[in-house]
């Protein structure tokens, strides 16, 4: 507009007046507010075939405006909603006109409030670092328009200075510095430039923002599955250790569970269910939780507390079963030997109790807050098959004479199995009660409400 001196509309050519300029600006803003990218088209007739740039780009005749629509993909809106629920803040950084940027942002759900903060590159130039930090710290929705690569780099650095984990998406060469400097740069694989793809940490082959939301969902699921794996494996170690310590303090001359039985549990009954937990599908509410802290450890207080909670229940049950069976026999402690039938039955009950409780423990650790009934008992068939294999192996150890000789076990009757099965469900029932209490207490700390 600043380079135009004349206008040619509908066959009329004349000077570009102030009223014409105002009409063009209003028309451009109207197009931009509809999410269109707007170009002004102008011409100049010259006699020289190689004019100087200053001559060619001055005294132009304005011909009109062109509005181009680059509609967002249909799946973007749902993906934006998903990452919002996950506690992830989205800031649009674009070289487009502020009205175009805001219109597109509203269309996909990045902007929902009537008064977003819209800052242009010129405004960023006028800010020092302290003022920029104040702008980024505002809870309002933020759009940065008409920005340069230097502005993008500065914004990424400012967010990182505030302790944020920053992901940057882009497809052009001008996005490369920000992609490289971010904690994770995400480039477009189909439409992106080679420079952007080389600078990024991750490349989206389908150029879809929805793939980012899917990656966040699966990434959270993998992290949670590692924790489930650890809770499952370490909780039964408490059930193996506590009976031994209790027998020592009680003055019982033998161990309630032998080393070879522990190996049978660790290598025979627990490995396959643990692997099946590693392939657990994402929980329904995995995208309703806030991002975890950058400094959060894998063995957090919550993980250790859950290990002690579930392991303590298992330990209490198998310890009680062992001493109940031993004391009910009426045989003095000092008269027990490894070949005493009651002792062999007691240690078999301890091993079977741990195996059965681990079967239900595997169901319990599948979710952190949601009831396992909501995700479905049968929704992870490999886990059920692996748990069934562990129980079948325990049955064989109890009844097969060759395995009885190896493990020093004895056959259990139906009442023993019923008792152990009932006690084995206690970790699952207790954890379901814990989850119900957490759900009543409200969303996870920091979760969006």
- How large a portion of the residues is in β-strands, by DSSP E? 5-15%
Query: In sequence order, what are the helices and strands, one letter per element?
Result: EEHEHEHEHEHHEHEHEHEHHHHHHHHHH
Shape: rod-shaped
Continuous helix count: 19
Oligomer: single chain
Low-confidence stretches: none
- Cα-based radius of gyration, to the nearest Å: 34 Å
Distance between the termini: 47 Å
Structural class: alpha/beta
Mean pLDDT across residues: 90
Number of DSSP-assigned strands: 10
Summarize this structure briefly.
With 449 residues, this protein is of the alpha/beta class. Helices cover 56% and strands 11% of the residues.
List the helices and strands and how they pair.
Blueprint (H helix, E strand, L loop, with lengths): L3 E6 L2 E4 L2 H16 L3 E7 L9 H4 L3 E9 L7 H10 L6 E2 L4 H11 L8 E4 H5 L3 H9 L4 E4 L3 H13 L5 E4 L5 H6 L2 E5 L5 H6 L2 E3 L4 H42 L8 H11 L1 H8 L22 H28 L12 H24 L7 H4 L5 H19 L1 H7 L6 H11 L1 H16 L8
Helix pairs in contact: 1-4, 3-10, 6-7, 10-12, 10-13, 10-14, 12-16, 13-14, 13-19, 14-16, 14-18, 14-19, 16-17
Walk me through what this model shows:
With 449 residues, the protein is of the alpha/beta class. It is built from 19 helices and ten strands. The protein is rod-shaped, with a radius of gyration of 34 Å. The relative contact order is 0.08.
């Amino acid at each position: 507009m600043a380079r135009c001196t004349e206008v040619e509309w509908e066959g009329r050519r004349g000077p570009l007046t102030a009223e014409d300029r105002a009409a063009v600006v209003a028309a451009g803003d109207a197009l931009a507010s509809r999410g269109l990218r707007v170009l002004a088209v102008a011409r100049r007739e010259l006699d020289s075939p190689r004019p100087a740039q200053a001559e060619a780009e001055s005294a132009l005749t304005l011909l009109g405006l062109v509005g181009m629509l680059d509609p967002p993909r249909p799946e973007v809106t749902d993906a934006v909603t998903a990452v919002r629920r996950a506690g992830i803040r989205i800031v649009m950084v674009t070289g487009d006109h502020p009205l175009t940027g805001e219109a597109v942002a509203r269309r996909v759900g990045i902007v929902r409030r009537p008064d977003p903060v819209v800052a242009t590159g010129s405004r960023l130039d006028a800010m020092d670092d302290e003022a920029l930090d104040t702008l980024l710290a505002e809870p309002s929705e933020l759009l940065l328009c008409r920005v340069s690569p230097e502005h993008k780099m500065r914004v990424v650095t400012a967010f990182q200075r505030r302790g944020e984990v920053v992901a940057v998406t882009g497809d052009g060469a001008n996005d490369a510095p920000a992609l490289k400097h971010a904690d994770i740069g995400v480039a477009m694989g189909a439409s992106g430039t080679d420079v952007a793809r080389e600078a990024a940490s991750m490349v989206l082959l389908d150029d879809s923002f929805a793939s980012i939301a899917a990656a966040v969902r699966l990434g959270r699921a993998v992290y949670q599955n590692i924790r489930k794996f650890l809770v499952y494996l370490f909780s039964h170690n408490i059930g193996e250790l506590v009976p031994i310590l209790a027998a020592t303090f009680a003055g019982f001359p033998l161990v309630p569970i032998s080393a070879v039985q522990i190996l049978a549990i660790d290598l025979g009954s627990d490995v396959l269910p643990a692997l099946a937990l590693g392939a657990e599908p994402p929980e329904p509410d995995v995208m309703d939780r806030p991002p975890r802290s950058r400094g959060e450890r894998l063995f957090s207080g919550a993980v250790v507390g859950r290990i002690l909670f579930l392991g303590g229940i298992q330990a209490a049950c198998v310890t009680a079963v062992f001493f109940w069976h031993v004391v009910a026999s009426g045989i003095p402690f000092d008269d027990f030997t490894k070949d005493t039938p009651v002792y062999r039955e007691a240690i078999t009950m301890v091993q079977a109790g741990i195996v059965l409780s681990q079967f239900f423990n595997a169901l319990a650790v599948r979710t952190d807050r949601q009831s396992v009934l909501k995700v479905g008992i049968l929704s992870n068939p490999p886990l059920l098959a692996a748990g069934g294999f562990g129980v079948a192996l325990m049955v064989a150890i109890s009844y097969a004479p060759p395995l009885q000789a190896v493990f020093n076990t004895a056959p259990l009757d139906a009442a023993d199995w019923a008792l152990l099965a009932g006690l084995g469900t206690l970790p699952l029932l207790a954890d379901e009660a814990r989850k119900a209490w957490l759900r009543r207490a409200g969303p996870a700390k920091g979760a969006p409400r």
